[in-house]
Amino acid sequence: MTEKTHYSDEELEEFRNIINEKLALAKRDYEQMMKVLMNQDGNDVDDTSPTYKILEEGSAAQSKEEIIQLASRQQKFIAGLEAALMRIKNKTYGIDRITGKLIPKERLRAVPHATLSVESKQNRKK
User: Fold this and answer.
1) Closest residue by Cα to residue 27 from 90, 71, 58, 84
2) pTM, full prediction
3) Element at 46 (helix H, strand E)
4) What is the pLDDT of residues 92-121, one digit of tens each?
5) More confident position, 20 or 36
6) What is the spatial distance between Cα 29 and Cα 88, in angstroms, rounded to a whole number?
7) Number of C-alpha atoms within 13 angstroms, CB side, residue 15?
8) Cα separations in angstroms, 49 against 23, 53, 66, 84, 123
9) Residue 45: left (phi > 0), alpha (psi -120 to 50), or beta?
10) Three-class DSSP category at 63
11) Is the confidence at residue 17, as pLDDT, over 60?
């Protein structure tokens, strides 16, 4: 049996759904951070996301610098997710960029924007 070199359209669709869900949440959280930075955050009762609560409760104590760092990381995460969607479109999603082998599904479900398997990532750090 030959080793599988790419994920099927059905598998890619599953990953697309996971990524789109994470992307929607990430964008919502990013927008909330930007509102906090611009002092436009109203204390709406519908803010039930844990990230919102942290920002609401901590915004007085948390410096703008820390929120800017969080927003920057969130922006990078969003870009990573969008790049993953592009790889799905190109049917190159889930392929380790160093070894060319498939990244295990478990890893992609946990870190859908991953471009390296855990093994490749660890080898890279050495």
Assistant:
1) 71
2) 0.77
3) none
4) 999 999 999 999 999 999 999 999 999 998
5) 20
6) 24
7) 32
8) 14, 7, 19, 24, 36
9) alpha
10) coil
11) yes
Name beta bridge partners: 95: 102
Q: For the chain, give the longest Cα–Cα distance.
A: 60
The long-range contacts involving 36-42, CB below 8 angstroms and separated by at least 24 positions, are 36/67, 37/64, 37/67, 37/68, 37/71
CB within 8 Å of 19: residues ≥ 6 apart? 81, 84, 85, 88, 112, 113
Cβ atoms within 10 A of the Cβ of 108, count? 22
Rounded Cα–Cα distance for residues 104 and 35 (Å): 37
